[in-house]
Amino acid sequence: RLGYGWDSAHAKYPGLIYCSISGFGQTGPYKSLPAYDLVVQALSGLMSLNGPEGGPPTRLGVSIGDLGAGLFATIGICAALTERAKTGEGRQVDIGMLDCMIALLENGLVRYLSSGEVPHALGSRHPSITPFDAFKAKDDWLVIGAANDHLFGVLADAVGQPQWKSDPRFCSVNARLENHLALKVEMETALNTHSAQEWVARFVSAGVPAAPINHMPQAAENPQVAARNMIATLQDPEMGELKVCGNPIKISGYPDSAQRPPAPNLDQHRPNILRALGEEAEAFKRTKVNRAPKHPIW
Amino acid sequence: RLGYGWDSAHAKYPGLIYCSISGFGQTGPYKSLPAYDLVVQALSGLMSLNGPEGGPPTRLGVSIGDLGAGLFATIGICAALTERAKTGEGRQVDIGMLDCMIALLENGLVRYLSSGEVPHALGSRHPSITPFDAFKAKDDWLVIGAANDHLFGVLADAVGQPQWKSDPRFCSVNARLENHLALKVEMETALNTHSAQEWVARFVSAGVPAAPINHMPQAAENPQVAARNMIATLQDPEMGELKVCGNPIKISGYPDSAQRPPAPNLDQHRPNILRALGEEAEAFKRTKVNRAPKHPIW
To answer: Does position B288 have pLDDT exceeding 90, yes or no?
Structure first.
């Protein structure tokens, strides 16, 4: 509408990489429809896989419709940048939020496409591994993931129920899946003797993957989260010290600081950006070998 | 353990881009601990934001711990490829699944870090916009996202309740948030007169974002999903025709086919890959200008 569509921008700047993110993408019968995160979570079927078993369909507790589209868009832009470094050609990257949700359905979609079975929400439970779920201990919840017979045996010993290993209801992956409700009752009875924290310590030291189900304070103060600089600090000239999320992409040779610069003011970096783009375009024009661009970038 | 760590691989192949994905990354006190999707969903606090309001913490219905790590890893690798095209330098990309979950917490984490408020699961409801939720119509569920006063007015008219617009409980964004339970009761009473499908058609034509809450069959057969080739077909020499998920990253100049080749057999492409890598390294060695590598890739 403003005259910055792909066709006109590409004609003027053949090296430009142009990415659009919309609810449904630039093609297809829905291309002009509005969307929100909630809409694509619903249409994609994602909500039908999330929430309590037998309960209402539940939106995922984070805006995965927005976040997922941003991640796939970034990959598309980076792929186009890698190609442009060789050819000089710009590309249009067309991301639809609904497409991205379909791409994140994983076993729910594959299960349906391969068998016709319609999967449904299972609470915290894994569709094909038992026990792999959230369990209530004496005071709080924890997760336990005993993904094979060996880990299940270690778990049975750790909770003082070694007879589970030879119980015909629980002695194989398939038996445990079939009897997951009975096993959950027995496990929660056994776990009710100690706190979630005590059980997690015991399971982790025995080698059974387990964890507390943290809320934001425990997550933000977790020592591993701190060690990885995943909570960063910035000094904003107007708002003072703020804590924000760190960068999960750690690349050698690039400092991963726990301090981040504040967001720039409007147009604060404009001259620097224009200068850098000009230099990049000049450097590109001087490149004459087989990886030279067919067109200047700008 | 096998002698292919970053240090030895980098020394031998300075242009190699090396990515590791693990539960907790290559540094920090948890670096050697095992993890699963379930474990990082729990530790990160993500599960505390998901599921019914007041209900148990709920694992997200897809393995976002695995999927998220894969997406961030891909971005890290692509970023390193873009740099290597300029410098020839390889990089180590170090991805921890827990870090990636922290990076996907969005408003739940920011809300806690900025205000100290501990957010909790809200079912399908948005934390700050009302109505933006799943609602039950006569026969089935639908989602409705009326994100501002204008859309709420259109919604009120569409359900034949124009008096909502001047009702002091509902007449502003804050009032609706405060009275979200009362509004939900009134909306579901009004919606109970028609099917979800009828309401969705009415809302979409009035411009209010709304959608059916699909299960896998409706999602897989959706006309937009079909038009975007998000369900692709492959002919496997052993298993016959299979349907699989398509690619959500659409890039101009690259065909986006609804047919995909089958997965190769073990080592089927080995000679082609080795030949292509050799040619790439040779081309790189011949490049002598300012974007020439300091080291050969291989």
So the answer is: no
